[in-house]
Amino acid sequence: MELDERNNCTVPAFEGRATRNDKVLKMLHRPPARRRWAIASLSYLLVFIGCLAIGVRLFRDSDRYKRQDFNRYYADATTLQKGGNPWHLFEPPSKESLEERQEGYPPAFYLMFSLFTRLRPEPAHCIWEALQIIALVTALIIVLREVGLTANSNSTRFAFAFAFLFPPLHSALHWGQPTPLLLLLLVASWASARRGWDITAGALLAAATLLKIFPWVVGGYFLFRRRWTVLASGLIFAVTVSLCLLALYGIHRNLDFLRGTLVSTIWLDRPRNLSVIGNLHALVLARAVAGWSPNAYVLGVLIALLSFSIVAISGISAWRVPEKPVTSSGLCWSLWVISSILLSPVAWDHYLVLVIPMYIFLAAQMTTDESTINQTNSWSYMLGTVLVAGGLLGYILAPYSAAARQARGYLILVLTSYVGLGLLLRQRYPALENLSPETTGPATEPTPTS
């Protein structure tokens, strides 16, 4: 027996030696003070540069309140608030005017945005952009809290710097898109489900779906996780809000919105469209221009097969990968987020804001999971890492290459990230069939670590 002077008690000698050995190992692996200072300084510098980049973006776009897309939100919400019908204008008389007119947003979005029409467009735009930044910061805080990173850690600062410098975020701010707000709703839904707050999780997922429609695909994550309460509460919330909107705006305007969801081929066939549906449509259209007779049946079969493949891969991962550790759950959820982008009829580069948590989960897993050290010789681990890293590099460089964007480079990058993440999950859990169903239940609250 040995005396533990700190706690004034005796402990077995082997436990005392084990404690001392652990302390020695930690000291050996702890970087020197100069290196720790350099890493901390770099993290603070990158956060400062990220904040500066956001400030420059907001300053340069200060006149965007009178341009797309914010001016369209403002005009349509004002029209709806005055008793008009913004979706009735969906079908313009000419192709040229169709180029200027996009598909209408859902009634729930305009109801939410009607709060901003009480202000003049210029201050409303400033508040709207500030709301997107607040939503992004809140989403990052939720993700970092779930993975157990503390506010004063270098990893947290690097995560914020990465998000602030991520080019798709600047695209979302430039176009006045609500993608950071969608990110907050989806992240909060995932985190609530992990903590067993199923009703809240379902309501948040339904709110994201009501605002932009395409996030409904993320519900597949909860479906394959067998989280029936989340799905039921989300469905009830969506139906309830839809009935309220039906009573508020009337049946005719709601029906006009549903008719307006038929996306114009001009937007489907854009080279910058990230959607597999849109790109398959563009491929068939290109063959038709070349003299080949297009077949709607063939197009439908191709879309169905590719969509089924994406849902199957994402579903198997959500079904079998355990809820713990938190990075496993987060990466499975991220796989479904990418699926929602691919399966949306139209998706643009600012949708990629939704994949920011994926990189945080991957970084947390690689820095805290010692088993990854033994996986470096696996072909799937190496290939998955290369594909995910290549996708990230492409997201950073694509905005500066018009040729890559016109060559449908964004679609290739999203597919690359999807396949890479799938391979990493496959390598991380090679014997998924041996996992018990109990491991996919709600997780307990993680213990924060520095």
| Fraction of residues in β-strands | under 5%
For the record, the count of structural domains works out to 2
**How much helicity do the residues have?**
55-70%
Total number of helices: 21
Q: Largest sheet, described in full?
A: 2 strands, antiparallel
Q: Could you give the count of β-strands? A: 2
- Ends: how far apart? 32 Å
Task: Give start-end ranges of low-pLDDT stretches.
Answer: 2-7, 14-18, 90-100, 431-450
How big is the Rg?
A: 24 Å
- Please give the order of strands in the largest beta sheet: 1-2
Look at the helices and sheets and give the structural class.
mainly alpha
Nutshell version of this structure?
It contains 21 helices and 2 strands. A hairpin with a 4-residue loop joins strand 1 and strand 2.
Structure description:
The protein is mainly alpha-helical. The protein has two domains: 1-30; 31-440, no CATH class. It is 68% helix and 1% strand. The protein has 21 helices and two strands. Strand 1 and strand 2 form a beta hairpin. It is globular, with a radius of gyration of 24 Å. The two termini are 32 Å apart.
